[in-house]
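Problem: given the chain below (70 residues), write out its structure.
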Amino acid sequence: LMVDSAILLAQIEQFAEVGVDLITVHCETEPGMLDRALERIVDLHLKAGIVLTSTRRSRTSHRTLPGWIS
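Solution.
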């Protein structure tokens, strides 16, 4: 999902309701929202992905990513 942080969690819920099994989130979302989004995706028993953009600087802390990589 590449949506405004204000609607990100609602979009996750909507996609889960229609039966998706994987949701990816762009890491350029506002600080703290990436963790919240990934936690919600996992809570819904879905696969979670993080989209990294190599051409833009991300506001996401590099410390966030290792906690979600498995």
